[in-house]
Amino acid sequence: MIWYPYEQMKNMKAPYKIIKAKGVHLYTEDQELIDSVSSWWCMIHGYQHPELTAAIQEQAANFCHVMLGGLTHDPVEKLSAKLEEFLPGDLNYCFFSDSGSVAVEVALKMALQYNTNQCDDHPEMKKRTLILALEHAYHGDTFKAMEVGDDEDYHFAFDKKEGVVHIPTEIPALEEAFALYHDKLNCFIVEPLLQGAGGMRMYDISFLKRARELCDEYGVLLIFDEVATGFGRTGNRFVADLVLPDILVLGKALTGGYIGHAVTVANEKVFRGFYSDNERHALMHGPTFMGNALACAVALKGIEIFERENYMEKIKKIEEISKREMLGFSDGRIKEVRVMGGCTCVEVYDPKTLEGFQQYAYERGVFSRPFLSYMYSMVPYVIEEDELVQVFTVMKDWFRRG
Ligand SMILES: *Cc1c(COP(=O)(O)O)cnc(C)c1O
Fold first, then answer.
1. pLDDT in tens, 291-305
2. Average of pLDDT values for 340-353?
3. What percent of the chain stands above pLDDT 70?
4. Low-confidence winner among 156-165, 186-195, 228-237 (lowest mean pLDDT)
5. Does the CB atom of residue 100 touch ligand 1 within 6 A?
6. For residue 280, with 0-12 CB atoms within 10 Å meaning exposed, 13-18 middle and 19 or more buried, which class applies?
7. Ligand 1 atom at minimum distance from 197 CA
8. pLDDT tens-digit profile of 8-22?
9. What is the mean pLDDT of the chain?
10. Given 19, 78, 102, 215, which is the most exposed site by the fewest CB atoms within 10 A?
């Protein structure tokens, strides 16, 4: 029997069974649905994209996977070279892994060991193990990722959070945290501009600019978890294009959603912290499926399409339509409507307001998955205007029906 995610198995509603998927559409026996969630935000090019499918098929005809320990291959070499060119600044050192959560673990491990390595070489330095994170953060479901996360609705069962300080996305709180803890702080991990699973919370770039300044001033590493925001979701290619982190984590859309894969990308400074004659300074990590050849082949093709088809223009258009359709829509039950890039969120006061919405949307040709008090869309970037309007119409009609 399948054990489904985030569900009380005893009373979970039967999932919709998908028999086919193409473009922005999912198909069940009796319905054609626009996937307004992009399969947990990753399916940016849509389903069954001929070039992405071909990239996987061609690689599979050669080999699907070889380990990266002591071996290398064309797809991983090409993807790493491509990311080096595609990503801003000196974010040039790609450590691959099989999922976003693992890539976050790697980032934190990198940051912590960076400091340990430094202390090895400079005995006068004090160890720094404290991690700064955001309130309502979500960084994945593995333990260290959960420790830096801050969402009771996911993590109420585990509440040990020694070694992590959470702050709101407000500059005074940020400055206060640095004033209090700067000599203990190892790194600051954030979902930049858009906090996804914590409730599609959007905040201003000025917060990240100030964070960069403070991190520089106090020698604290800045980590951007762009597993969700990377590849255009916020209306920026990467938030890292605006403020440069020391370590960048990408996942979800990296492979266009075709296969699970992720990457932790370090800058020159972080990489140099491991590059030494001391064997103990090596990064001791290596997921079995890191650098998987199918994943690398499809990621490469996905980035090629992203650039060639000018996805940033498509996302700008999505944002314009979203604002036109949704901003200004109001109802007594709605707390706030917010739009950023390819993400729209309707936050209600009472989660009960959204009960039944998923089925309502299903019957009107839209797949949606509201959670807690958030109704949202994170559409595939290949969506047509009339399809996007349909998604928003269904959202608005839910409130208009009385
Ligand atoms: C989804 C997500 C993760 C976890 O990625 P998985 O591939 O599900 O392990 C980590 N960080 C953020 C910001 C995410 O949205």
1. 999 999 999 999 999
2. 98
3. 97
4. 156-165
5. yes
6. exposed
7. 15
8. 999 999 999 999 999
9. 96
10. 19
For the question of residue 22 being annotated catalytic, the response is no
Active site residue 138: yes
Q: Which of 41, 44, 101 to mutate to test the pocket of ligand 1 (most atoms within 8 A of CB)?
A: 101
Q: CA–CA separation, 196 vs 190, rounded Å? A: 11
- Which residue has the CA at smallest separation from atom 15 of ligand 1? 228
228 Cβ closer than 6 Å to some ligand 1 atom: yes
CA dihedral 193→197→198→202, nearest 10 degrees, is 20
The residue assigned the tokens 């994943």 is 295
Per-residue b or e along 190-202, where b marks 16 or more CB atoms closer than 10 Å to that residue's CB: bbbbbbbbbbbbb
Q: Which residues contact 379 (CB under 8 A, 6 or more apart)?
A: 24, 34, 35, 36, 38, 318, 342, 388, 391
Is residue 374 annotated as part of the catalytic site, yes or no? Answer: no
368 alpha carbon – ligand 1 mean position (Å): 19
